[in-house]
Structures are given as structure tokens and as C-alpha cells.
Amino acid sequence: MRKYKKKKEKIGIVISNKMKKTIIISETKRIKHPYYKKVILKRKKYYVHDEYNISNEGDLVKIIETRPLSKQKFWRLLKIVKKYVTTRIKN
User: What's a GO biological-process term for it (predicted)?
Assistant: First the structure.
């Protein structure tokens, strides 16, 4: 019987949804510098397949690893964790 690796999952914020069926998310990690011991924010961008274009900029989403879908897309949208809500003040 074959053993399959568990697929990686990540959580990030949608920074762009301008393309068809593709979103770009940004994952932020907090790491401590090995020498200076200061906390540093490291960001990484991922191109994610969004089949039905359901996510918008600012949404917190969960993605999962998949086979290569294009030159840059190796992830697909699993679910939207939290929708981004804008509040406008009317004058």
C-alpha cells in the first residue's frame, strides 16, 4: 500500500485578485534574528488557483499544495477563513 505525503496548508491575506481564476496571497512569518535577537517579519507571495473567483482583496484565506497548474501556480484555494469588510463613513 502506498503512503502519501500530507499536503502543506498555509494561511495568508489576498493582496491581488486581478487575474482570471488566480489570486496572489501574502504569507507573513515572524522569526527571531539569530544574532541580534530582534523579531523580523518575512513575507512570501504565492500564486493560488481560485476556480470560481470568490475571494477579494483583504480576505484571509487557507490554501493547500497541489500539482503544478501553471508556471507559477502550485497552490489552490481551500477556504476563506475571514472576509474583509470595509466600513465607509458617509458625510
Answer: translation
Tell me if 77 is assigned to some domain: yes
Burial class of residue 23, CB neighbours in 10 A (0-12, 13-18, 19+): buried
Range of the domain at 75: 9-82
| CATH code for the domain of 29 | 2.40.50.140
How far is it, in rounded angstroms, from Cα 61 to Cα 77?
Answer: 7
Residue 58 phi, psi dihedral angles, 5° rounding: 95, -15
**pLDDT band with cut points at 50, 70 and 90 for residue 91:** low
Domain-located, residue 3: no
The verdict on residue 63 lying in a domain is yes
Mean pLDDT rounded to a whole number for the chain:
93
